[in-house]
Amino acid sequence: MEMLKDKNQFKKIRAVIFDFDGTLAVLNIDFSLMRERIFDLMRCYGIGEETIREKYLLEIIDEVYQILWEKSSSHAEAFYQESHQILHKVEMKGSRGGEANSGNRGDLKKIEG
């Protein structure tokens, strides 16, 4: 996890918006890249896409973890850690260009006071 070098940067933050579905903020996360990297990692551990039943990334990671656990708990744990690092990196990269949707800016300014 990245640590802030200057703790005074927090003073510049006026609001934090948690928006998990893109209704309030522009969603810049490259989900295709995220999926591609997770599938590349799976192949490194000998798990092909065709063996996976789940459709969503977090569930896919859990399914691969279970498959690997049956063979090697250390490989399962390593896969789990590496896959979540991939998710984190792609999400953090996407969040750097985040901003509120233009239609919501006025509402957010009203809340700010």
Notable characteristics:
113 residues, mainly alpha, 4 helices, elongated
Explain how this protein is built.
The protein has helices at 31-44, 57-71, 73-95, 105-112. It has 113 residues and is mainly alpha-helical. It has a domain at 28-97. α1 packs antiparallel against α3 and α2 (57-71) runs antiparallel to α3 (73-95). 9% of the residues are buried.
Task: Report the portion of residues in β strands.
Answer: under 5%
Shape: elongated
Biggest pleated-sheet summary: none
Number of helices: 4
Helix and strand succession?
Answer: HHHH
Distance between the termini: 32 Å
Determine Rg (CA atoms, Å). 18 Å
Would you tell me the structural class of the helices and strands? mainly alpha
Estimate percent helicity: 40-55%
* Uncertain stretches of 5 or more adjacent residues: none
Total number of beta strands: 0
On the 0 to 100 scale, the average pLDDT is 84
In short:
With 113 residues, the chain is mostly helical.
Q: What topology does this entry show?
A:
Layout lengths: L30 H14 L12 H15 L1 H23 L9 H8 L1
Helix pairs in contact: 1-3, 2-3
